[in-house]
Amino acid sequence: MKNLYNALQLKQLYTLRLLGYNYSSLAPYKEEEISLQLPQNMQELKKQVNNCHLCELSKYRKNAVFGEGSLEAKIMFVGEAPGETEDSLGRPFVGKSGELLNTMIENVLGLKREDIYITNIVKCRPPKNAEPTPEEANTCLPFLKKQIEIIKPKIIVTLGSVALKYLTTNELQISKVRGSIIKQDDFTIIPTFHPSYLLRNPSAKKEAFEDLKSIKKLYNEITS
Ligand code: URA
To answer: Percentage of residues in the chain with pLDDT exceeding 70?
Structure first.
């Protein structure tokens, strides 16, 4: 939130400079109370993400990738960051790893993609698909937290180590905790491998299949 506050203050100063001011105390401009709260409404939140310039990644994006799916979803899938196809289309998991994720959701979990919610730790594509820096991830995290607060999923499936790292507090290793149930706040986290890891390491698909079975079991318990 400190970054958001600083960015809003900077914006005010730029506006004043455009108006011809050389010096100003920010105090008089507090009249128009700045809200540091993120909106509780998904459409408003999406607008904020689309207009966000809080980190370097916003400089390189074609589109911010907010996330998509059902606002009633019981399961949320969280990936790392948009890739090239996602950046072009403004939608999460629509490239090669998205195809695999769709298969996992539809063929193994027996769910439709539109019944779940899919998003990422960071909403803009890192250049060359690099791992988001801690600064980028932590700056973007309040958006994800708000998405979770609005949707209230019962199960969050973290895809890969980056989603696991930023959604849990302890330093957990994906190879050790994948498929396990991590109770946190009002939801249960089940970590599994990232689809792009599975594309590079097809032998890990067997373990991912086991994880999906745990997810399905929990989902059936929750919804029955
Ligand atoms: N990889 C991710 O982590 N997220 C996407 O949206 C696409 C690829």
So the answer is: 94
Predicted model pTM = 0.86
Q: Answer whether 80 contacts ligand 1 (Cβ < 6 A).
A: yes
Instruction: Name the CA dihedral angle for 9, 12, 14, 15, rounded to a multiple of 10 degrees.
Output: 170
Taking a C-beta distance cutoff of 8 angstroms, is the pair 79, 66 a contact? no
**Regarding the domain with residue range 35-223, which homologous superfamily does it belong to in the CATH classification?**
Uracil-DNA glycosylase-like domain (3.40.470.10)
Cα(1) to ligand 1 centroid in Å equals 25
> What confidence tens digit (pLDDT) does each residue in 61-81 have?
999 999 999 999 999 999 999
**At residue 39, what is the residue type?**
P
Tell how far the Cα of 125 is from the centroid of ligand 1, in angstroms: 9
Distance (Å, whole) CA 6 – CA 12: 10
Residue ranges per domain, the chain? 1-34, 35-223
The secondary structure of 3-47 as a DSSP string is HHHHHHHHHHHHHHHHTT-S---SGGGGGS----SPPSSHHHHHH
